[in-house]
Write a sequence for this structure.
């Protein structure tokens, strides 16, 4: 069994693994494959430079891969600063504190308001009933529903 193609490549398996992981990172970006590819490259280089048993190579690969991944996550996390558009992916939260006009009379405190080119469901606090055209001050957002009161 040790005469198989896989075993005959020896140290070059690490470079092949590094190439495969690099290609996979480009095809399906997921941020972590590149670090394990780099770890395979380092282990391959070390195995070329000094004689290391295959068990030690696997241990080095695991340690270097996890170390690179953790270091990259810490580095990326420390660089995350304030966004110039903090509400970009929190659309409903960006409507808080603004007043919108009801599109219909509310029943049991439920109605709808037009915000920009979208129509949003609104739930009035205390199940208040308002008439079409009345203003609703948005006080909260839960999922895809705005919470408001007469405004």
């Amino acid at each position: 069994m040790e005469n198989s193609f896989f075993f005959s490549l020896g140290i070059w398996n690490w470079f092949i693994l590094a190439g495969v992981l690099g290609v996979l990172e480009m095809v399906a970006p997921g941020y972590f494959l590149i670090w394990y590819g780099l770890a395979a490259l380092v282990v391959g280089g070390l195995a070329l430079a000094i004689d290391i048993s295959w068990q030690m190579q696997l241990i080095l690969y695991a340690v270097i891969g996890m170390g690179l991944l953790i270091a990259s996550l810490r580095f990326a996390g420390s660089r995350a600063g304030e966004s110039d558009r903090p509400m970009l992916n929190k659309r409903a939260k960006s409507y808080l504190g603004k007043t919108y006009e009801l599109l219909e009379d509310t029943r049991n405190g439920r109605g709808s308001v037009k915000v920009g080119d979208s129509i949003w469901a609104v739930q009035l606090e205390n199940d208040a009933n308002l008439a079409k055209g009345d203003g609703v001050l948005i006080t909260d957002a839960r999922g895809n529903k705005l919470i408001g009161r007469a405004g």
Observations:
- Helices lie at 5-9, 12-27, 33-49, 54-79.
